[in-house]
Write a structure and sequence with these properties.
Distance between the termini: 14 Å
Strand order of the largest sheet: 4-3-2-1-5-6-7
Largest sheet: 7 strands, parallel
Order of helices and strands: EHEHEHEHEHEHHEH
Helix content: 40-55%
Number of domains: 1
Structural class: alpha/beta
CATH architecture: 3-Layer(aba) Sandwich
CATH class: Alpha Beta
Number of strands: 7
CATH topology: Rossmann fold
Length: about 190
């Protein structure tokens, strides 16, 4: 594993713990020799984690659509900055560049990104690990919803168990490194 994609907020949230955890996550990635791939922004948690990785001696790779560059929200101090023509191209490029995916607390975009990449796993498009960093139980209600979706027969238990959940950045990275993809019906034919 060389690179971890981080999905996170373009705001910092109300509690300073979200920023503190983003700093810790950036330091952890750098300490483990993992490059950061993220949305390329210079605002919110996005900027905080990129700056943390860079300050810790790591590599930060941003992927951002031209429309956001035009709004002057691109981080100009990154190791690499890939500019795309659309959000769809951005997400595809981030997936190509990454070996694992982690969602920190964030809003609708963060949720959409982690669910899309998780669906790609379910469909057998990749077998890379996917995780939530559950800072201050941010994702606990969502996890309850997902467990209910399993109970109601809309999500298979194998697909639910693909999602790694941890509140500590160090433990989360260790679980990513130890991840073995489950063999499920949709993943059985995946070329590895």
């Amino acid at each position: 594993m060389r690179r971890a994609c981080i999905y996170c907020g373009s705001s910092t949230g109300k509690d300073p713990v979200y920023s503190d955890t983003a700093i810790a996550m950036g330091e952890t990635l750098a300490r483990h020799g993992l490059d950061l791939v993220y949305g390329g922004g210079s605002i919110g948690i996005m900027r905080i984690i990129a700056d943390s990785v860079l300050k810790s001696g790591g590599q930060a790779i941003g992927v951002i659509p031209q429309s956001l560059v035009d709004r002057e929200v691109a981080h100009r101090g990154l190791t690499e900055l890939h500019i795309t023509s659309s959000m769809h191209e951005r997400k595809s490029r981030m997936a190509e560049l990454s070996d694992a995916f982690i969602a920190l607390p964030g809003g609708l975009g963060t949720l959409e990104e982690i669910f899309e990449i998780w669906t790609w796993t379910q469909l057998g498009f990749h077998d890379k690990p996917i995780a939530l960093l559950n800072t201050r139980d941010y994702y606990s209600s969502l996890l309850h919803f997902l467990d209910n979706a399993v109970d109601q027969g809309f999500v298979k238990p194998d697909h639910r168990h693909m999602l790694i959940v941890e509140s500590d950045p160090e433990k989360l990275v260790m679980q990513l490194k130890d991840y073995v993809p489950p063999l499920s019906d949709k993943l059985a034919g995946l070329n590895r």
